[in-house]
Amino acid sequence: MQEIDKNKPVMVTGATGYVAGWLVKKLLEKGFTVHAAVRDPEKEHKIHHLNGIAANSPGRIKYFKTDLLHEGSYAEAMEGCEVVFHTASPFTSDFKNPEKELIKPAVKGTANVLEQANECLSIKRVVLTSSCAAIYTDAIEVQKIHNGAFTEDIWNTTASIDYQPYSYSKTLAEKKAWEINKAQNRWDLVVINPSLVMGPPLNPQATTSESFSLLKQMGDGTFKMGAPKVGIGLVDVRDVALAHFKAAFTASASGRYITSAHNINFVELGQALEPKYGKSYPVPTKALPKWLLLLIGPILNKSLSRRFVKNNVDIEWRADNSKIKRDLDMNFRPLRETMEDSFQVLIDNDII
Questions:
Q1: Which of 2, 124, 167, 212 keeps 20 to 30 A from 270, CA to CA?
Q2: Which residues sit opposite 86 in a β-bridge?
Q3: Which pLDDT score, from 0 to 100, does residue 212 have?
Q4: Distance CA 173, CA 189 (A)
Q5: 39-67 in b/e burial notation, b at 16+ Cβ within 10 A?
Q6: Does 237 fall in a domain?
Q7: Where in this chain does the record put each NAD-dependent epimerase/dehydratase domain (predicted)?
Q8: Mean pLDDT of 100-114
Q9: Is 90 exceeded by the pLDDT of residue 3?
């Protein structure tokens, strides 16, 4: 891997996003010129927080109007860059047509950005935001692994367009990225695979991340009778942004990186909030019984299908994060700090 020239601009796709915002902040504070590729640079409410950060940082930000689904859309934004951070991808469970709303934007968008990297001769490294969803669909799958923890060698083979289409979209998009990367030898690809991302958003009024919806439910009474004890991994958004930064500028970084700090479940999220917020908000501290969720889960929430409940509730989730700790010298924030900082943002912005 050739050294990256830190005086050259870097491009960030989906720059107004949840993880991307913290990454852009880091880059600006380190003095980089950031080419922010966004859908609509005219929407002031989407970019005002980035402008505020840029005004108080040594770096500079330039906006470029781009569209994930349009070939050639990223040509101008990529010009002169040596690093591309591709973070833009849909993350929602609220969709009517998974093919159109999740899979096509994820796969075609990834192809458009990486094929543009093939055209742009200055590019040396692409850092892609994938997900642990490209490694597994259900927590129960960990029980079939010989060392009892998900690792970077594992690929999701169980998601489909009919079951967990979000996980399916992330798997197909990351596979497409590796396919394009392996067909050339000028730029290298490093992939960040976060688990569920929590932590304070930089632009809370415009945040659409699914993890934000879950956090809101922790305080609005949705789980006041208890939460489903769904086994998950969790990581702070600020740590995910730092992982992207380190992946770009650590010459020896290579392959995929599970970016997950804690092997936990939904009930433990509530328990982390309880000491500070339990008296004022109905944060969940106990689990709903699995038999009850099998009966009423699909009525409570369409994503709590019987298959999902069976394969994820009361199942311990485990991932091995030793590779990122070793290769990128990553340390992760404690759970309580992540949860309290996130929840406080909701309170301060009258969201709960």
A1: 167
A2: 13, 128
A3: 82
A4: 13
A5: bebeeeebbebbeebbeebebebebbebb
A6: yes
A7: 10-248
A8: 90
A9: no
**H helix runs in the chain, sequence order:** 18-29, 44-55, 75-78, 98, 104-119, 165-182, 210-219, 237-249, 266-277, 290-300, 306-312, 322-327, 335-348
Judged against a pLDDT cut of 80, whether residue 90 lies above it is answered with: no
CA-to-CA dists, residue 229 to 95, 232, 270, 307, 348, angstroms: 24, 9, 11, 15, 28
Nearest to 282 by CA among 272, 270, 268, 293: 270
Gyration radius from the chain CA atoms = 20
Q: What is the domain extent for residue 165? A: 10-347
**pLDDT, tens digit (0-9, with 9 covering 90-100), for 227-239:** 999 999 999 999 9
pLDDT at 91 over 60: no
Question: Three-state SS for 204?
Answer: helix
pLDDT number for residue 1: 62
Distance separating alpha carbons of residues 223 and 267, to the nearest angstrom: 10
Q: Check: CB of residue 247 under 8 Å from CB of residue 192.
A: yes
Please tell me whether residue 253 adopts helix, strand or coil conformation: coil
Q: How many domains does the chain have?
A: 1
Q: How many residues does the chain have?
A: 352
Query: Model confidence over 23-70: pLDDT tens digits?
Result: 999 999 999 999 999 988 888 888 899 999 999 999 999 999 999 889
Determine, yes or no, domain membership for 106: yes
Q: Is residue 141 part of a domain?
A: yes
**Do 117 and 46 form a contact (C-beta atoms < 8 A)?**
no
Q: Is residue 210 part of a domain?
A: yes
Calpha distance 208→222 (Å, rounded): 19
**CATH number for the domain including 319?**
3.40.50.720
CA distance 307 to 303: 10
Strands of 262-265's sheet in order across: 196-198, 231-236, 262-265
Question: pTM for the whole thing?
Answer: 0.95
